[in-house]
Write a structure and sequence with these properties.
The chain is of the alpha+beta class. The protein has helices at residues 6-15, 40-58, 91-112, 115-119, 122-139, 142-150, 155-184, 186-194, 201-221, 224-229, 231-239, 251-254, 278-281, 302-313, 326-330, 339-360, and strands at residues 63-64, 67-68, 70-73, 78-81, 84-86, 246-249, 261-262, 265-266, 321-324, 365-371, 378-379, 385-395, 404-409, 414-418, 429-438, 446-456, 459-470. It has 2 domains: 1-362, no CATH class; 365-476, Sandwich (Immunoglobulin-like), CATH 2.60.40. Bound molecules: iron/sulfur cluster (2 copies). One iron/sulfur cluster is lined by residues 247, 282-285, 287, 289, 297-303. The site of one iron/sulfur cluster has 14 residues, from helix 14.
Length: 477
């Protein structure tokens, strides 16, 4: 925008509230062609992105003691976190971890805004650091891209577009396979990819659907995922406040904005913003950060780099756009610790302590003992009373466990297996039946408490309580 009158500017400044940067006035999608970013922040983000991409693509191949680093097999309900297996029975732990993570995100966002979006979100990293870079390489910078889009379909345009979308499709296939590897495991994925297709139609179908989804998001949908789909993006309005650190324009220093020279003459009384709109041209979500913090801003820092370059050229201090909070720019003090952040931190601490203690006391073996339905009690030839039970034992470890079930209390009782019990295979379940015989003199009429213990070798792995039913006249026998 050229230098504008005060009235025009104020109309422009308020106009941004009425539309999205990537939608035309008649409601159509406006394709954004951000200028190629460059600068210190961009170089740092490239470095961080490559580290994260190596971790993401390398993750499925990393094992701990022969077991995957991360496995989220929702279909078969198998979950592995840092080599430790989790079962559906550990769902409460999963919920607790999810809740802790959400509170952490809320606290982090209240202090640092959308740092995650700009530096670590897979959507931003893939779009800005992989797909967009391929686009720049094949089609050129923003101006050349716009020109190519408007040009007729010549052989050159077909070659460029075909090459770009071919690479996009290949990359989407690779990303789909990587995400699937985190769900079904790299070994299972390898079997699907190498076996004849007819043997794994469901697996191949999933890969195809995931590939198309990723291709659609990165080739077509792009910044709309951040602006209108991502729930985290929509939460911003309730999580950030005037103390949140975000990519912010220093309006105190920049305003009134305008070109420093007009008609060959110096213009007096202007701020540092020279109205070059470089910050807008690099923005991948099509917004003008000078309007203040907006939900569309993914904190990608491209506008900081662009403005710093301009400031260098016009010989003014860098940082007209920088990481800062509204309050500190307004002249107040930057406050990281506020009652709100303290409250979030308190909740987070409680959740963390709970999660750590629950993880620390988590049983590696779980068992369920049920009295057999339909049978109350039996009287044995020696006069003792017996109850029948079924037991189900889950081995959550990756090792085979020898198992022995003992009656712990009352100690005078006797436990007899009907068949054999164990050992339990890694990640396996065994089921068995047994009965407990007790002398009548130990029992009260009706329900009596009894305690079982489950041993693996010399280690007590689980303790269970159950009940033993006795007849109403047990005391008189
Ligand atoms: S890049 Fe900096 S100087 Fe140029 S319009 Fe944006 S804020 Fe103003
Ligand atoms: S306003 Fe700046 S930080 Fe925010 S998305 Fe646009 S370029 Fe990135």
């Amino acid at each position: 925008m050229a230098q504008t009158s005060t009235r025009e500017r104020s109309a422009y400044e308020e106009n941004f509230r009425d539309h999205l940067g990537n939608v035309t006035p008649d409601g159509k999608r406006l394709k954004i062609h951000p200028r190629k970013p460059r600068g210190a922040y961009h170089r740092a983000r490239v470095l961080v992105s490559w580290v994260l991409l190596v971790i993401l693509f390398g993750g499925p191949f990393v094992t701990i003691n022969g077991h995957p680093l991360l496995l989220l097999n929702i279909i078969e309900r198998k979950f592995v976190l840092f080599g430790v297996p989790f079962w559906p029975q550990d769902f409460h732990l999963f919920l607790l971890v999810t809740l802790t993570f959400v509170v952490f995100i809320v606290l982090f966002t209240a202090i640092f805004g959308r740092l995650w979006c700009g530096w670590a979100c897979p959507q931003t990293i893939f779009l800005e650091m992989v797909f967009r870079k391929i686009e720049y390489f094949i089609e050129g910078d923003a101006v050349q891209q716009r020109r190519l889009d408007k040009a007729p379909w010549t052989a050159d345009k077909m070659m460029r577009k075909g090459l770009k979308h071919g690479i996009y499709a290949g990359l989407s296939f690779l990303i789909a396979n990587t995400f699937l590897a985190y769900i079904i495991g790299i070994d299972e994925l390898w079997v699907i990819v190498t076996d004849p297709p007819s043997q794994h139609l469901a697996g191949l179908g999933s890969i195809t659907v995931f590939s198309l989804l990723f291709y659609g998001v990165f080739a077509r949908f792009r910044e709309q995922a951040c602006i209108i789909v991502c729930p985290y993006g929509r939460w911003q309005s309730v999580m950030v406040n005037q103390d949140t650190i975000a990519v912010t324009y220093d309006f105190q220093r920049g305003e009134p904005r305008g070109k420093a020279r007009k008609a060959g003459k110096e213009v007096e009384g202007l701020g540092d913003c020279v109205e070059c709109r470089q910050c807008v041209q690099v923005c991948p979500t099509g917004i003008d950060i000078r309007n203040g913090i907006q939900m569309e801003c993914v904190n990608c820092t491209a506008c900081i780099d662009a403005c710093d370059e301009v400031m260098d050229r016009v010989d003014r201090p860098k940082g007209l756009i920088r990481y800062s909070s509204f309050r500190s720019i307004e002249g107040g003090h930057r406050r990281l610790v506020t009652p709100r952040t303290l409250g979030y931190a308190g909740v987070l601490l409680v959740l963390l302590i709970t999660a750590v203690s629950l993880f620390g006391t988590r049983d590696e073996v779980q068992a369920v003992i049920l009295r057999e339905p339909g049978r109350l009690y039996n009287e044995l030839p020696d006069g003792r009373l017996s109850n029948f039970y079924s037991v189900k034992i889950i081995n959550k470890t990756f090792s085979t466990l020898p198992i022995e079930l003992r009656l712990e209390s009352p100690a005078e009782g006797e436990l007899t297996y009907l068949g054999t019990l164990g050992p339990v295979a890694p990640q396996g379940i065994v089921e068995g039946r047994f009965y407990v015989a007790l002398p009548g003199k130990l029992l009260q009429p009706g329900r009596n408490d009894i305690v079982f213990s489950l041993w693996s070798g010399a280690t007590l792995v689980h303790r269970l309580e159950s009940s033993f039913l006795a007849p109403h006249d047990v005391g008189t026998r």
